[in-house]
Amino acid sequence: MPDSVFVEDVAVILDEIGILARPGPDSRRSEVTRIAPVLGEHRVLKSIEPPGTLEGGDVLRIGRQLYVGMSGRTNGQGFDQLRSLAEGFGYSVTPVPVKDCLHLKSAVSQVGPESVLVNPNWVDGAAFSGQQLLEIDGREPYAANGLLVGDSLIYPRSYPHTAERLVRQGVQLETVDVSELQKAEGAVTCCSLVFEQGSGE
Questions:
Q1: Catalytic residue among 42, 101, 161, 190, which?
Q2: Catalytic-labelled residue, pool 42, 101, 103, 191
Q3: Is the pTM here over 0.85, yes or no?
Q4: Segment 142-193, tens digit of pLDDT
Q5: What is 98-195's CATH number, 3.40.50.170, 3.30.420.10, 3.75.10.10, 3.40.50.2300?
Q6: Distance CA 170, CA 165 (A)
Q7: Which of 104, 128, 151, 183 has its CA 20 to 30 A from that of 115?
Q8: Is residue 191 flagged as an active site residue?
Q9: Active site residue 161
């Protein structure tokens, strides 16, 4: 399972439920069955069923809002199933077209309580109404992926121009070297599933 380091893609973890994804490539689907017992210790689990496909890299959660990238890895049936599962717990679920990149979070990520970092060439920032839009530096097209944990943004060291913009906006950065992951269009959100333990219990 050579892609298994990108653990974000195999599940979407909400406060009340865990949703096992169904990755687009057949080669990644065995990853889901391997991680399910671990996630089952923390959440009641539901699954995306065929013919739906959904990858966690296409799901951006901001509060009770889920933005879902309609990409080459997430299809309409996967979106519909996620919406059905999440709306029952009071989440709003919005489809967002993406282009020229693998996942939604290649093009946009949350960087503050009410702000997102976007690559406007890959996603239309108008989809994220109510959020302050911060644009990447155009010289760094893959720079829109950051992982907000608490008050700090874990952010790739290889995008100094965008990092400078973020610092000017008051974002507290913790920079890391993810150059090897970037060779596979991976970044900082891809390698974790972040959630509060016990929220769904």
A1: 190
A2: 103
A3: yes
A4: 999 999 999 999 999 999 999 999 999 999 999 999 999 999 888 999 999 9
A5: 3.75.10.10
A6: 9
A7: 183
A8: no
A9: no
